Amino acid sequence: MSLTIWRINLSSQKLSIEQPPDHWMKLGGRGLLAQIMVDETPATCEPLGPLNKLIFAPGLLVGHMLSSCDRISIGAKSPLTGGIKESNAGGSTGLLMALLGIKALIIEGQLVDPWWTMVLSVDGANFERADDIAGAGVSAAASNLLQRHGEKVGVSVIGPAGEMKLSAAGIQNLDKDKAPSRIAARGGLGAVMGSKGLKAIVFNSRGAIKPAVADINAFRDAQKRFTQSLLEQPQTKIYKEYGTAAMTRMCNSFGALPTRNFSAGTFEGVETISGEYLRQVIIDRGGDGKPSHACMAGCIIQCSNNYANSDGVSMVTPIEYETIGLMGSNLGIDSLDTIAILNSEVNDLGLDSIEIGAALGVAAEAGLLKFGDGEGALRLLNEIKAGTPLGRIIGNGAVSVGKMFGITRVPAVKGQAMSAYEPRAIKGTGVTYATSPQGADHTSGLTIRAKVNHLEPKGQADLSRAAQINMAGYDTLGACIFAGSGFAAAMDTIRDLLNARYGWNVDLDILQVLGKLSLNLERQFNINAGFTKQHDRLPEYMRYENLPPFNTVFDVTDEDLDNVFNW
Amino acid sequence: MSLTIWRINLSSQKLSIEQPPDHWMKLGGRGLLAQIMVDETPATCEPLGPLNKLIFAPGLLVGHMLSSCDRISIGAKSPLTGGIKESNAGGSTGLLMALLGIKALIIEGQLVDPWWTMVLSVDGANFERADDIAGAGVSAAASNLLQRHGEKVGVSVIGPAGEMKLSAAGIQNLDKDKAPSRIAARGGLGAVMGSKGLKAIVFNSRGAIKPAVADINAFRDAQKRFTQSLLEQPQTKIYKEYGTAAMTRMCNSFGALPTRNFSAGTFEGVETISGEYLRQVIIDRGGDGKPSHACMAGCIIQCSNNYANSDGVSMVTPIEYETIGLMGSNLGIDSLDTIAILNSEVNDLGLDSIEIGAALGVAAEAGLLKFGDGEGALRLLNEIKAGTPLGRIIGNGAVSVGKMFGITRVPAVKGQAMSAYEPRAIKGTGVTYATSPQGADHTSGLTIRAKVNHLEPKGQADLSRAAQINMAGYDTLGACIFAGSGFAAAMDTIRDLLNARYGWNVDLDILQVLGKLSLNLERQFNINAGFTKQHDRLPEYMRYENLPPFNTVFDVTDEDLDNVFNW
């Protein structure tokens, strides 16, 4: 059995299983999403209308217990950016789709009379009423579905935010331990799922025959070499110990830690929200807390964590750097407990913590809460939960808050909020924010680990270009950003894994080939949707408002920005 | 003394008076705005930021008691559409600027510590604190300013909506009888003025020497012929009797009267909101009411009115067709008294009644009020006045309401709501809505009076092209849409008036020349701002959702839309 395309017509509740066309075969994950969208999704369609398609595609290497390589890419035309959106997540969704032999799941049309759960299994697609979990938080909904369908299934589910079609709503997925903590967060894909009337998708692989590997011996050999390489990288140890929160101190030292709605790059409370502090608190408190935890089966990095309260009871899994930056320093909050409460709340609502953290920062600038006021932030999250007008404004993201309250200091590009790297201080990442077809997004091409002067504008476009190509490549493989260091030191393992898995004959440059192809396709979709170079710009104020402590503006030239994709 | 450019730097509160460059000389009103914006305003600037410029420019024929030719064009980059915006209004602002010899007023930068009133006179620009009128409605603010500066001044003022920087906020101007009833309504120019910290501008022409007419005899002769032509047109009589409300029955008969959020084209309550009914009610009630009234000095059409309550006390001046369509049938409201209350309220808040009517229609679809519920609509207007989150959502327009509440049936193009001609039933106007650089707007090129089958898609692009060119030409002259019928029957009077006024030697095709130039400039600005043909489209649902009673969709081809500006 080879990998197939599962196409769902929601209006008729019918599944058709198709052989992928040749030019889809060589792609997976992010690249395959882009190809499908260019081929099929009307680029000018209304994101929440019946013509948009919601697509799930595991990366090319998903399903084989390769460390950190089981990521699921989810995509559609974004209600937040109006352009292409791919958002990927760890957890078990990718693995279960691979076990079912699904190369891509394409969801079309809209269900009548929401809400529904779609169950995918060897028996095809089955639709069940979801009335009992409609309105429920992600956690309760996932528990309900696991109870009904058994602990071995995968679940993708939206929270109240997705049901309300808020543009900051994501799609939550289960981690390997069944916690709904792996969100395809960015760009409002939860709203697209909501617009389709789907509360949840259950992936049940019972009885499935996993598609065969072309040369299993060669695959195992390459896998060993990749694992070895990954174990040798210093980052692997760093991320295992401190998780992504290792970035907190580093960003602060670069003057790039978003602070009080991106008005400063260092935060006086950095120590108590640092990765080092986080680890110590978790260890000291014991109980449910875990300083290190794998979100995907087989991951040796285990950058996730479980944060417990002072009684040792789990508050949230995981606390990540982006959430610390956006819901911590960006809001002037220096308490991990407060961040954990906010994080848990947005997770359960099914919201992107980056977008909501940025939205709350703009809200603070509008006087809706004070910086440092965790209770005020929680109160605003409760407005989202209650579906009030104010809650909807915040739940639609940073640009929405700015628009409604007449605030122009909004850290966003193409409608999407920046993540926790201040682009005036890490200018290569600023280039990525500006030019990525995905809108402002660090996972599209982070540059902070490059050994350059990040304040110098020259050369940043080259740095961003290389990072964007690599990341688009890894996202097409289904590889986590942290697997990248292992692959980078043993590039032949990518070639060997792909050739062994699919019987292909690709070269050493395959990561570049996949990355460039994916980016070209994404840019093509956006051009078809009406995007131009004028959309590849940072917010105006970042060009004239100095960022402390280095009092720097974003001064990479427009010409450099316009040449990022000329390779 | 020749006409000059008055350039205000708000940051320094300085005025500089400049000679216009040659290529500005031949333009006025809408065309001049477009030229100035292409020359000076960064097209990608943040509309509410310091780099946007707010520009006032009287049309070329303003200032000479020509009937219906004293219109003022106000423009800036629009916070509603993100593109160029020109919104013109009658009243006395244009006349007073002409008396002061101001060809264009260019307002740059932002004032520190709002709010301020700027007083323009022969002594230059003077800034006064506006603390006593900050937060005040348009009516009270205008009264205060007239009291302070004398009854002879002109006033442009924003209401609370502009102060809140809401995208549906306009700039109100006094009519010839000092009522602040002539709003440059569309596109959020009031928010731009608000972002600059300006509550009001006072135009005081005392002591000014009006710029001379090159050949006064030739001018008077052409004026006579134009007046005669205007008097001979049947529309002049119709609009005098019924005002713009004459369109109500006509649109309903074409199945083009927006009803219940553009879900139908005929309204069962049409009779009690018709122009005929309106006239009779005004006459029957007597008192302050006037079925006919001139907004500009010298106008012989006098399409305005004053609507009084059953005690004969004025409720609002005027009630126009667009308001009847958007706040009447579009909300399922069949009572002129209710419409008058809503109209009066939006006027005083300084809001565009078209945008707000459309926003309320979408709000009704979202369940925030019931169709037909006038009290519910008033309650929502009070939310705007109070500056609540819900009020801000509505005050930011129809697209904002749709976005916040997940509604996709939003009658808007380029972010701006449609006016009261349903484009599926008057397809030429649909072409105008789709392609006008101004966003959906009937004044950009209305086609309902053409003797064609308005349901037939073929040929509508040609019709719209001709109408758009004409209207851009008239808006450059400062001529009201209703002056057009008089000019159209005596085209030589435009040529003769311009040559006599300026000592020029233009030809009979001058209206076309001005119209095409203006449109080309506007399109250039929008291209510079990042607009593409993908933005020249009606909302998706209008292509597949049938409109009763003729069950028609918008089926003009994209190719036709893309060729509108190929002349």
Overall pLDDT of chain A, averaged? 97
Report Rg of chain A: 22 Å
Which chain pair shows the most residues in contact? A-B, 38 and 38 residues
Query: Which stretches of chain A are poorly predicted, pLDDT < 50 over at least 5 residues?
Result: none
In terms of DSSP E residues, the strand content of chain A is: 5-15%
Report the biggest beta sheet of chain A as strand number plus sense, adding barrel if it closes.
6 strands, mixed
Strand order of the largest sheet of chain A: 2-1-6-3-4-5
**DSSP summary, beta strand count of chain A:** 17
Distance between the termini of chain A: 38 Å
Helix segment tally of chain A: 22
Please, what is the CATH homologous superfamily of the domain at 4-203 in chain A?
Answer: Aldehyde ferredoxin oxidoreductase, N-terminal domain
Class inferred from helices and paired strands of chain A: alpha+beta
